[in-house]
Amino acid sequence: MVKRFERLKEIQRLDPKRDFLEIYRFTVSYEFPWDITRALEFALYRTYAVPGIGRLLAETAELTDRSQKRYDDTALLLDSVVEHGFDSETGRTAVRRINRMHRSYDISNDDMRYVLCTFVVTPKRWLDTYGWRGLSGHETRAFAAYYRALGARMGIQDVPQTYEDFERVLDTYEHEHFGWDEGGRAVSDATLDLMCSWYPRPLAPVVRKAALALLDDSLLRAFRYERPGPVARTLTRGALRLRARAVRLLPPRSAPHYARQNPEIKSYPDGYDVARLGTFPKPGVRGCPVPHGRPSDAPAAG
Fold first, then answer.
1. Is 57 a domain residue?
2. Residue 281: what pLDDT?
3. Which residues contact 18 (CB under 8 A, 6 or more apart)?
4. How many domains would you assign to the chain?
5. pTM of the prediction?
6. What is the Cα–Cα distance from 180 to 302, expressed in whole angstroms?
């Protein structure tokens, strides 16, 4: 049991303000690679419930028509920064790709900041509930610092300073903006179908029910899904907590595990070039390629 917590001791010897990248890398690639992957999936999934975001994603068709590639590219771009660092050539290339994709569309700063907040808050909440241990205060401060650095490189304004600030912005934004939109529901359905596709076909209904059982009521209302029964929720959440207890008994990971090693990444069996990941504007198209409707940061009726 002492060995299981050796890396946490190593993390706590680092400075979360100065060494935030090293702490974040240790936490996500050694301590919780599976949990962080699931948490970031749900972080992005939450954003579909903001009508402007869900509608835009539906109009681009990236998540509805090319779900696997969009999932893979997002995971690989974000993880390239984790693995190689902000100042590496690979890290800088990944951030440039992320920025160029976003700048092709009319996305408000408030929406961008909210998405950034999901990357900070959702993993902590997931680990506090389903991890083999919760995030330490040291790690929590490092997570906030890491995403402040990413937000700065993405040109996001008014990025929260502390974890508590990130959490407050997220909760307020969801309270004010979560609501029904056909596009958001379409993207949600496509994402659930993608998750089901990673398992043998007979298990698809079970996977879908388990995924819905993990959604909080605000998400279920926004997407107009039927609320899962108490048995489904108890079994799903109980299984994750049982997994956490089993992982806690395992020896610590001796090598890092990055997103490119995940079995869910399927689009590039022969490798990939970070500079070619993501979407590119169609020839001759300038500005936002989707029609403009209600501003993405306007409240929508639930």
1. yes
2. 73
3. none
4. 1
5. 0.91
6. 5
